[in-house]
Specification:
By secondary structure, the chain is of the alpha/beta class. It contains 13 helices and 5 strands. Helices cover 44% and strands 7% of the residues. 48% of the residues are buried.
Length: 349
């Protein structure tokens, strides 16, 4: 048993050395919400879960992992594109350990936001707690690999952030507290400040390569179209306007922090326009349906409402832009990840 442990330890070190020799990015580290949650919510007392069929039906082995899709999510594709591994594991998943996390780990929690009040809505992991988990990970990695090797990985890793949609759709526009306290622009500024503070703290902890995710055309999510039923189920342009405006503020934030934090390589990964193009011209990307989702009626189902006994769920998710009423299919995730990889992330190759 001792020989086997030593063998695997040496093999892991060898593979990490090979990874660093041939790639500028040795690990992918993920923060955010359900767009990038690999299953952390499985271990949280919340109703916002997806660790049951038909979620994951097109994943490896048809396993529902807690990813809010029929298969893989963007960080998985991005990790594979960098030649690291095809899946980024969730930090709270007991199946994995620091050996797995050394080349990539996900701290994201479905339903969370920049605003702590957003994570309170569905009792999920707040962003500040994701950062605390990251600090634990740093300690574990240094114990596992030693300070020098761990610090090299932490400094060369690519940090992905994808968050903010819930702050608007499940908090600001749905509940009255924040909307009575802030105008839309004031709330955007409030969130952007939190984003800036988070990135600055990540930088102080050793992160250098960071991708800040923008908002999607959130007014075109099937759930929002359903809420807009009285107006013909069209995209809610007020929400899309807010997404574009917030993305502009994030772009300004990226420019400012790149000037202030010496050595940082911060980019904005803006999914808005590629997703908008897919939604407005689905046939051009090989899709048949963009207004409704695959799961159930495609109008409102997500989480526990998206079950394997729902008779309306589509047979081929590849024909749909959205898997459930809030989240893209694996195929859409792959297209968006490929676009991001070839554009804003290309500088890290």
């Amino acid at each position: 048993m001792a020989f086997k442990a030593i063998y695997w330890f040496l093999l892991t070190h060898f593979l990490l050395q090979i990874s660093r020799a041939y790639a500028r990015v040795p690990a992918i580290i993920v923060f955010g919400d359900s767009s990038v949650d690999a299953g952390n919510n499985n271990q949280v007392s919340t109703i916002l879960k997806s660790d049951f069929p038909p979620y994951g039906r097109d994943f490896y082995g048809g396993q529902p992992t807690g990813r809010f899709s029929n298969g893989r999510i963007p960080p998985d594709f991005i990790s594979e594109a960098f030649g690291i591994k095809p899946l980024i594991p969730a930090f709270l998943d007991p199946f994995y350990n620091i050996k797995d996390f050394a080349t990539g780990v996900c701290f994201a929690s479905a339903g969370t936001g920049y605003d702590n009040a957003t994570s309170d809505v569905l009792s999920v992991i707040p962003l500040w707690k994701e950062l605390e988990y990251y600090k634990e990970y740093q300690q574990d990695l240094r114990i596992y690999l030693g300070n020098d090797e761990a610090n090299e990985i932490l400094g060369e890793a690519l940090y992905l952030m994808s968050i903010g949609t819930n702050d608007f759709l499940e908090n600001y526009y749905l509940l009255s507290n924040r909307s009575s306290e802030y105008s839309t622009e004031e709330y955007q500024n409030f969130l952007a400040k939190i984003a800036g503070n988070f990135i600055t703290e990540l930088f102080q902890l050793g992160a250098r390569k960071i991708s800040l995710g923008g908002l999607p055309p959130m007014g075109c999510l099937p759930l929002e179209r359903t809420r807009n039923l009285l107006l013909g189920s069209d995209c809610v342009e007020t929400y899309n306007d807010a997404a574009r405006s917030f993305n502009n503020k994030l772009e300004e934030l990226v420019d400012r922090l790149n000037g202030e934090l010496v050595g940082i390589q911060l980019v904005l990964a803006n999914p808005y326009y590629i997703l908008s193009d897919i939604i407005q011209n689905p046939e051009s990307f090989g899709f048949e349906e963009a207004a409704t989702a695959c799961c159930g009626t495609g109008l409102f189902e997500m989480g526990y409402m998206c079950t394997k006994i729902n008779p309306f769920t589509c047979s081929d998710a590849n024909q749909y832009v959205f898997w459930d009423a809030f989240h893209p299919t694996e195929r859409t995730n792959g297209i968006v990840a490929d676009h991001v990889f070839k554009t804003c992330l290309a500088q890290f190759l």
